[in-house]
Amino acid sequence: MKYIFLFTIFCTIFAGFIYAEWQEEGLKGKFYDGRFMVFSFDYESAEEIGLKVRDVYNKVIEDIGYWGAFKNKYQILIWKNKEEFLKFLKKQNINISFESSAIALYNWKSMPTILGYYSQNFLTKFLPHEFTHLILSEALQIEGEKIPLWINEGLACFEEGGSIESLHKFLSKFIKQNNYIKLKELIYIKEYPTDTTKLQLFYAQSQSLVGFLINKRHKKDTFFSFLRWYVVKEYNFLQSYLYAYGEYVNLEEIEKQWIEYVCK
Ligand SMILES: [Zn+2]
Questions:
Q1: Ligand 1: centre distance to CA 153 (Å)
Q2: In which domain, by residue range, is 181 found?
Q3: What CATH number corresponds to the domain at position 138?
Q4: In terms of domains, do 97 and 168 share one?
């Protein structure tokens, strides 16, 4: 009991120190529930983001079928507008593309962190996307950079919760023209495609493939078991699929099943 009490005091002091640092950066609102530390431009937005982060967290672990206990604390720093956000990034020597509204840093100042600014789609799109990258890395206990790109981006896009119908309408067009990225290429992509259409296809197909695998699970942890074989133990796609889903098939067969899922 005494230790729990001391630990609580330590956490409060710890959050207080960090708060003082971010207050100087214009982030005056704080929400902290022992795990999620949100620092934002005012209290209302900090609370709104803190509550959203909890929802996203619960949904992601439900979707991936994770059973274990999480230990990480997360830090989320949100500026009021793009100008202030970019100014801060420059000061910290962090480079991102100009269009980005938020960024996930797996280990920044010893903590998984999201930096961003409050925009129209921040709560519904950018926050779930970036936060999913951090949760997946923690659930698999592996550095984010080691997670295959299609899994990492596919799950993050899946958690944005956009319409599957319009995603599949978009993909059907490319599938019918035989102009999509074949599975045997998609799962080995290590760099973001530079061609705009291919980049769009990469994100859309990765999201859809992750959706297909989550949808196909027969037990709560089937997809998570696949992730452990494939990402952590580094078995190939087909072996991991066999161990998790119990199907001995080749990539062409999985691709055929995925196409039926998209075009049904
Ligand atoms: Zn992403």
A1: 5
A2: 149-263
A3: 3.40.30.160
A4: no
Characterize the bridge pairing of strands 111-117 and 74-79: parallel
Q: How far is the CA of 133 from the centre of ligand 1 (A)?
A: 7
User: How far away, in angstroms, is 77 Cα from ligand 1 center?
Assistant: 17
- Yes or no: say if 147 and 227 are a contact pair by the CB < 8 Å rule: no
**Could you give the CA distance from residue 207 to residue 154 in angstroms, rounded to a whole number?**
4
pTM for the structure as a whole? 0.91
From ligand 1's centre to the CA of 59, what distance in Å?
17
Residues 72 and 190 reside in one and the same domain: no
Closest listed residue to residue 47, CA positions, set 76, 67, 85: 76
Q: What are 93's strand-pairing partners?
A: none
159-186 pLDDT, tens per residue?
998 899 999 999 999 999 999 999 999 9
Helical ranges in the chain per DSSP H: 2-23, 43-64, 82-91, 127-140, 149-158, 164-176, 183-186, 196-215, 222-227, 237-245, 251-263
